[in-house]
Amino acid sequence: MKRAALLLPLLMAGCAPAISPRPEASVVAPPADWRTPLPSEGVVERQWWGRFGDPQLSALVEQARANNTDLAIAAARVAEARAQERVARSLLLPSLSASLPGSEARTVNAFGQPSESTSAQPTFQAAYELDLFGGNAARRDAARASAAAFAAAHEAATLSVSATAASGYITLLALDERLGLLRETLVQRGEALRIARDRAEAGYTSELELRQSEAEYRAAEQQIPTIEAAIARQENALSLLVGDTPHAIARGADFDALATPAVPAVVPSDLVRRRPDIAQAEYSLAATDANLRAARAQFLPQIRLSASGGAAISSLLGDPITIWSVGGSILAPIFSGGRLEGQFDAATAQRDQAAFAYRKTVLTAFREVEDQLALIDRLGAQEQALLAQRTAVAEVLRHATNRYRAGYSPYLEQIDAQRALLSVDQSLIQLRADRLNAYVALYQALGGGIDGA
Question: How far apart are CA 264 and CA 242, in angstroms?
Answer without folding.
Answer: 27
